[in-house]
Design goal:
single chain, alpha+beta, nine-stranded mixed beta sheet, six-stranded mixed beta sheet
Length: about 725
């Protein structure tokens, strides 16, 4: 998009999202809605280097000084990658005597009952660095044995001498009474002030010992790394004149101050993907679509998320560092609220390979940013989804990323030919096989994700974004039976734009289990008051005025003896026995909605009490284009050969310049729409319309049988 004349100083917002392959940036002028977009290859060994370089390049291209930026919101995969790649700090665990091995004992559940060689991820803390201390708190919070501070100080001395950088403290039942954990922190800081300390009663004061300990360990493990990372960003930004508000995206879709992120880095576990869920809801709202499916396909992975009633669903926990990527239970459980989404090992950089049975497979391994797909010309020799798209004519060699990163078709073709040789496929047959496999895999995963949540995919529109999302969305939608695909403006960097629509927020939780009909409501009220004080303080530190802060209370409940919890809203106002009846009615209604029955003879048990403290949602308005003629012919920039089996193979198609498409323009497929950061493929029989907000709306034709001429020989092998 072209830049407007430079406006007054101090009127810009920047979204910065570091992904596995590309770092995406968006510069938004707050008054005019003018957007500037930028992509730069991520630098995996030092993510801050690409982030800062991209910011400077973006500002320079727009004629804007870094000091003109008033808000910078950052999403990053640093926390997730550090845990997966085991690049965190040398960490110790301080625990109640007798619970040293909780990290290995886990829940004693098998995620695959038929696997005789079942593996779980290794603990982040070595056994020799897991230390027991004498202390004890009862299940009701009574302090049975106070902590020996002198003993803890001695332990801290040994840890510091042994090179320990971080300590996780997780004592039994500390969520009911944190006194011993707080005493341990004070003792460690007296003896070894340079060691960072994470308390389970601060990080996740919830019932369930293994999950609470594991989450606290993960927080401690990445805390020194994120502290250094944020410090470097703040220092460099300050040197460049930035004096605005700097926040980081949390897994819930709310932004946090640097201080909150330093204390609770585990809350940034799904920092980048959360922006994608937010932007899906943001673009769906003006269209009157409160329920839709977000499809974010980047360079490394694809993600599916469900938007209901204008908001992405939030899950209370997730797993990281799975031994088997798609087997639930094979990873480290992390109890932090997270935008509910499914991740699929299918991105533009996903590598195609042949398995031991001679079958063509795609992913989950990715070429990433270094060396990247073969067509990047950076030393990669394995064929990827991007190489397939280039060979099929979907991507244009000289105009990739606006011409700043030309692709090399001969390198892509050579890699595809090498892979296809054992299958007796040429480069095009191999490329089409890769394309088919990846869209079928994504559609299958999306179908499972939606059906598990009781949803029929055909009822939803699919909103597609990410660098590779628009080029695959129509075929994914067709397989799912969806007829409406939306490609929003700035689709290639939409997750970065999603960061700009995130409010500053804090999600707090505390366990106080008990039967709903006999709860000590004075203690519940005291918990909420304590959490509200913490939340208000965190938002004030982020510069949010107290009068603009909203609060939302929720409770997690279950039938006594059951394992899965159900979350229901807690009404505003005083808490007492009359609230119990309202909570019971809300729980029964939600239970019946999910399961179709309700076991009225079982008592209801409350477990966790949650509070969301949220600042105002930023008022982000994008500039809409002027209406144009119905015929999109004026926006055609070129014509080229592209492969569509429905037309018998390669066919010449119009290539539209998205910047020249105006609201009201229409076009039929097959066609290609190019913008700097993404390419949209309009299949044969599909119809493209540009709506008033500048969204590309694809009316997807129903899936048809493949022509008989393409069902034999090499093309059949590719399928």
């Amino acid at each position: 998009m072209t830049a407007a004349p430079r406006p007054a100083r101090g009127s810009y917002r920047v979204g910065l999202d570091i992904g596995g392959t590309f770092t995406d940036l968006v510069l938004l002028h707050e008054t005019t809605g003018e957007l500037r977009l930028h992509k730069i290859l991520t630098t995996p060994k030092d993510p801050a280097r690409a982030a800062l370089a991209g910011l400077l390049e973006l500002c320079a291209a727009a004629g804007v000084a870094v000091g003109d930026v008033t808000v910078l919101v950052h999403g990053t995969t640093l926390v997730t990658n550090a845990i997966i790649e085991r690049r965190g700090a040398r960490t110790a665990l301080l625990t109640t005597r007798g619970f040293r091995d909780i990290l290995e004992m886990g829940k004693e559940q098998r995620y695959d009952i038929y696997d005789l060689f079942l593996r779980f991820p290794d603990p982040l803390v070595r056994r020799r660095d897991r230390l027991e201390v004498d202390e004890r708190t009862a299940a009701d919070g009574e302090l049975l044995a106070p902590l020996d501070r002198d003993a803890v100080r001695g332990v801290a001395d040994r840890l510091a001498a042994g090179g320990i950088e971080a300590v996780a403290v997780a004592f039994l039942h500390s969520y009911r009474n944190p006194a011993n954990e707080q005493a341990a922190r004070a003792a460690i800081r007296e003896a070894a002030p340079d060691i960072s300390v994470s308390l389970s009663s601060d990080v996740v004061p919830e019932i369930r010992e293994y999950e609470r300990t594991c989450t606290t360990v993960c927080n401690a493990y990445v805390q020194p790394l994120l502290d250094r990372y944020i410090g470097r960003l703040e220092s460099t930004l300050g040197e460049r004149g930035f004096a605005g508000r700097f926040t980081l995206m949390q897994s819930t879709g709310g932004a946090a101050s640097p201080d909150t992120a330093r204390r609770f880095p585990i809350r940034l576990l799904e920092s980048g993907p959360a922006g994608g869920a937010l932007v899906a809801a943001f673009f769906g709202g003006p269209l009157g679509l409160r329920d839709l499916v977000g499809f974010d396909m980047g360079g490394t992975t694809a993600k599916i998320c469900l938007i209901r009633d204008g908001r992405p669903a939030i899950a209370p926990e997730m797993e990281v560092a799975r031994v088997h990527r798609f087997k639930r239970g094979s990873g480290l459980p992390v109890t932090v609220p997270t935008v509910d989404m499914m991740e699929i090992g299918a991105g533009g950089g996903s590598i195609a390979w042949i398995d031991s049975l001679g079958l063509l497979k795609v992913g989950p391994h990715s070429a990433g940013a270094e060396p990247g797909p073969a067509c990047y010309g950076r030393g990669g020799g394995e064929p990827t989804v991007t190489d397939a798209c280039l060979a099929l004519g979907y991507f244009n060699e000289p105009s990739f990323l606006g011409g700043t990163m030309p692709l090399h078709r001969p390198a892509a073709v050579a890699a595809l030919e090498r892979l296809g040789a054992p299958l007796r496929l040429d480069a095009i047959g191999t490329a089409w096989g890769i394309h088919q496999i990846v869209v079928e895999s994504m559609a299958a995963a999306a179908r499972v994700y939606l059906i598990e949540r009781g949803q029929d995919p055909r009822r939803f529109a699919l909103i597609a974004f990410g660098g590779a999302g628009p080029s695959h969305a129509a075929r994914v939608a067709r397989i799912l039976g969806m007829s409406d695909v939306i490609v929003p403006p700035a689709s290639g960097v939409a997750s970065a734009l999603g960061l700009l629509v995130a409010p500053v927020s804090v999600e707090l939780v505390h366990s106080l289990p008990g039967p709903l009909d006999s709860l000590p409501w004075d203690r519940v009220a005291a918990l909420y008051a304590e959490m509200e004080t913490q939340g208000l303080a965190a938002l004030r530190d982020a510069g949010i005025a107290p009068g603009s802060i909203a609060r939302e209370r929720r409770a997690e409940m279950r039938l006594l003896g059951q394992f899965h919890d159900i979350e229901v809203p807690v009404p505003d106002g005083p808490l007492g026995p009359d609230v119990a009846a309202r909570l019971a009615a809300a729980f029964e209604a939600e239970y019946r909605r999910r399961y179709g029955v309700f076991l009225a003879d079982r008592p209801i048990q409350a477990l966790n009490w949650r509070l969301s403290v949220t600042g105002p949602r930023p008022d982000v308005r994008l500039r809409a284009g002027e209406p144009g003629p119905a015929d999109a012919g004026a926006a055609v920039r070129a014509r080229r050969q592209a492969y569509f089996p429905e037309t018998g193979g390669f066919v010449e198609v119009p290539v539209y310049d998205r910047d020249r498409l105006r609201p009201g323009m229409r076009a039929g497929g097959p066609a290609i729409v190019e913008e700097r950061e993404a390419t949209t493929i309009v299949g044969p029989g599909d119809h493209l319309t540009v709506d008033a907000a500048g969204n590309l709306r694809l009316a997807v034709a129903r899936q048809a049988r493949q022509p008989a001429s393409l069902q034999g020989g090499r093309d059949r092998g590719a399928d």
